[in-house]
Amino acid sequence: MMIENLKKEKNAIILAHNYVRPEIQDIADFVGDSFELALKASKIDADLILFCGVDFMAETAAILNPDKKVLVPDIATCPLAQMLDTDSLLSYKRMYPDAKVVLYINTLARHKIYADAICTSSNALKIVNSMDSDKVLFGPDMNLARYVADRTSKEIIPVPKIGFCPTHYQITTEDLSIAVKKHPNAEIVVHPECTVDVQKKADAITSTSGMIRYCKESSKEEFLIGTEVGLIHRLKKDIPNKEFYPISEFSVCPSMKIHTLDKAENALKTEAIHVKIDEYIANKAIIPIKKMIELTKN
Ligand code: 13P
Predict the structure, then answer these.
(1) Averaged over 52-69, what is the pLDDT?
(2) What is the chain's mean pLDDT, rounded?
(3) From the CB of 60, is ligand 1 less than 6 Å away?
(4) pLDDT of residue 1
(5) Whose CA is nearest to atom 10 of ligand 1?
(6) Class of the 2-76+256-276 domain?
(7) Which among 8, 106, 175, 285 is least surrounded, fewest beta carbons within 10 Å?
(8) Ligand 1 contacts CB of residue 36 (under 6 A)
(9) Is-contact 255 78, C-beta < 8 A?
(10) What is 80-164's CATH number, 3.40.50.10800, 2.170.30.10, 3.10.20.90, 1.20.5.170?
């Protein structure tokens, strides 16, 4: 296979998020959730990284690997990361000077520089609880903010007030009722980017890889999955003896699906789309990213 030859020739590694097309997941060296990908990117032994995910993920890999080339098959923008704007972040920081700032990894590097720590859906509560302040500015996902707020004694201030992942936001309680009627014995497993109403009806709320672990360990045979449909491929591949159904078939992230095998091959061949981060931003953004890695290990 051409991609395999190019990988060897260029000493490249392919990293992919759980949401990308099945055929991309199948050629990747590592597939994971946002935290696993950041952790993997912090220990890469290759000259070149081809990152199949969305912009903030590839940026994180580039920040953690200043001496390596990070390529992407195509430009994939995370709409949630776009919902945070610099002016509101800075005005909230001015309004709450004593608050610590925890930003979701789904933010652009130019915003990560203002964070005390970055978090992902798998470690958000732990990171927030480890901040030495009673107030935490948290953004940009209001549903993850609410998930954390309901489980911590700290005051969580969502920044901006309204920020969400459109793919998770459109999964409704009506979709869930219909799915439950079809599969009454299934356990309900959802992502914390889902609305609070959907979260309330779930048996488990966790990150994408957390969902895989949960379904593996559960004694149940059937699961209703509330996240981007790309995860169903990984669930079926990793746990072939169980059944998985998306709560909504419309929960598709168009940005994650932009990468194709042809584009991946072309990226390795031409090295055309190279992720470049301004040195000043990279040097500042790496601090809260490393803080997250350090706090998650403890
Ligand atoms: P995780 O894979 O970390 O759960 O994140 C999913 C997601 O929604 C990325 O935007």
Answers:
(1) 98
(2) 97
(3) no
(4) 64
(5) 106
(6) alpha beta
(7) 8
(8) no
(9) yes
(10) 3.40.50.10800
